[in-house]
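Hi there,

I know you've been waiting on this one. I reran it after we fixed the sequence typo, so this is the corrected version. Both the input and the resulting structure follow.
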Amino acid sequence: MPETEKILIVEQEGSLASLIAESLSAEGFSADILESQTLASKEYPVEGKEYDLLVIDLDSDEKVLSFYEKFRSLNANAAIIVTASSPCLESAVNYLKGGAYDYLTKPILPEAVAQSARNALENRRLFLNIITLSEELKEANTLLARQKDEIEREKNLLDRLL
C-alpha cells in the first residue's frame, strides 16, 4: 500500500482550514494546517518536511507569497491548489501557467477542495510515473548504445579476421 499523501493547507481563515483538513482526512490524506500568522514568526516554518500538495490562500500578505515561492522551490514536484476571495482572471492565468493545478475562488466548499486534491494528486502520480519511465528509457537507451558499440567492435574484428 502506498504511503499516505501529505497535504499542507495555508489558509488565513482557521475555520475554513479545519473544514478543508477534515474533508481531506476523510479522503485518506494526511493534512497539516499552517496558519498565515505563523509565517511571520519563521522564514520557512516547514523546513525539512515534504508535501505532495499545497492548498494555499493567496489573499494574504507578502509573507504568504514569499512562502509560496519558497515552497515551490523546495517541493518542485508537489501539486498546488490556489484559493482566493476575489476572482481575478489575470491572477488565475498566471498561477495556472506557473504550475498550479487549480485556482478556486471563495466561497469554496471543502468537498470541492477534496475533489480538486484527488485530481491534482492523481495528475502528480501520473507525472512522477512519466518521469520514472523517462529515466528508465534513458538508461535502456544508454545500455543499448553500449551494446551496439560492442557488437560493432566485434563485427569489425570478425571482418578483419575473415
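Quick highlight: Residues 110-161 form the longest helix (52 residues).

Best,
R. S.
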